[in-house]
Amino acid sequence: MIQTLSLTIGVPKDAWLVLDALRRKRNLSDYTGDGIDDASLRECVAQAESLAGLTQRWLERMHRHLLAIEH
Question: CA gyration radius for the chain?
Answer without folding.
Answer: 15
